[in-house]
Amino acid sequence: MSEFDFDLDNIIDIIKSKNYKIIGLQFPEGFKRKAVNIAYDIEKGTGASVIISGNPCFGACDIDTNLAGNVDIMFHFGHSKMGRFDNVVFIEARSNANILPCIRTALPLLSTGDIGLITTVQHAHKLHEVIKFLKEKGIEATAEKGDMRVSYPGQILGCNFTAANIDREEYLYIGSGIFHPLGVAIATGKKVIAADPYLNTAAEILTEKFLRKRGGYMAKAINSEVFGIIVSTKSGQNRIELANRLAGMARERKKKAHLIMMDLITPDQLIAFKVDAYVNTACPRITIDDAERFHVPILTPREFEVVLGERKWDDLKMDEILENDVKE
To answer: Which of 47, 100, 118, 284 sits CB 3.0–4.6 Å from 319 for a disulfide?
Structure first.
């Protein structure tokens, strides 16, 4: 478990100091393979009983409140703190990876000396190293703090790119995958280079193919008459006010709109509803990652506004959940 710091000594100290007897553990999908070993180490080190959440977990917005209500304390791994919970401790699982090699790989792709740095919580603690390294190369780099849904300068989420709301000529993302940097590229309209510290690769993020694909879903929904507007019951995803506003907007245009509230949102759970298209106000990644699995088009709130004629096609941005958007 040396790749990430699961802070086991601190966890054991917290449990012992308060004499907690029943412990809950919640992991995102990528860390669940570590769950049994971590549970064993905690039980061995404290004598407490451990219950592992078996439910899917998609972020700090997705706390297993049922488990938290049945344990003395719950440790949520892989994300920084979001929301207010009396007995939940967030364990960030910071990465121990050396990020400078991928920054060297990215250097030829940087075209300016004015860089905004962005990353996930796993690497946010190492951005100062990147700033120092780039400064030695004559490049001015900064990491800015986003809104209250993020904890650290430069940190972004899959649904929040406010750390990139700064006037920089281009952005350098440190982390794996392209969803996060793709969101920044669409949100800012700026050049984004993604540097992967695990593969030691770097590439420019191109948005054209993605936007064309999303445009196809909007085109399929343009003549829809009945919309299902999805609302999440998850603590950090419930945008009921937005859903009601969108429903009202649809009805003003003589369209039918029905709110559907649910916890785990999958194509299989929605296939029985007789609608022409869905509008997702829950986690934006559902719309993007699972779009091809839905039996009808599934749109983001902004895409829905385009379909209704409330927003121009060239004014499309990636869906974000901001600090004042959710009902906790």
So the answer is: 284
Question: What is residue 259's DSSP assignment?
Answer: E
What's the rounded Cα separation, in Å, for the pair 51 and 317? 40
Residue pointed to by tokens 């959710």: 326
Q: Is 260 helix (H, G, I), strand (E, B) or coil?
A: strand
Asked if residue 302 has pLDDT above 50, the reply is yes
Instruction: Supply 204's token pair.
Output: 């420019």
User: What is the C-alpha separation between 238 and 257, in angstroms, rounded?
Assistant: 18
Task: Delineate the domains of the chain, giving CATH numbers in brackets.
Answer: 4-93 (3.40.50.11840), 100-206 (3.40.50.11850), 209-315 (3.40.50.11860)
Please give the Cα distance from 211 to 318 (Å, whole number). 10
* Local structure of 324: helix, strand or coil: coil
Residue 274 to residue 286: CA distance in whole angstroms = 20
DSSP, residue by residue, 163-207: GG-S--SEEEEESSSSHHHHHHHHHH-SEEEEEETTTTEEEE---
Asked whether the beta carbons of 117 and 174 are under 8 A apart, the reply is: yes
Per-residue pLDDT tens for 93-132? 999 999 999 999 999 999 988 999 999 999 999 999 999 9
Sign, CA dihedral 115-120-126-128, equals: positive
What pLDDT does 328 receive?
A: 60
pLDDT of residue 2: 66
CA 170 to chain centre: 21
Reported as a pLDDT band with limits 50, 70 and 90, residue 83 is confident
pLDDT per position as a tens digit, 39-60:
999 999 999 999 999 999 989 9
**Cβ within 8 Å of residue 257, ≥6 positions away:** 226, 227, 228, 229, 246, 247, 250, 251, 279
Start-end of H helices in the chain: 8-18, 35-46, 65-68, 100-106, 127-136, 179-188, 208-221, 240-252, 267-270, 284-289, 301-308
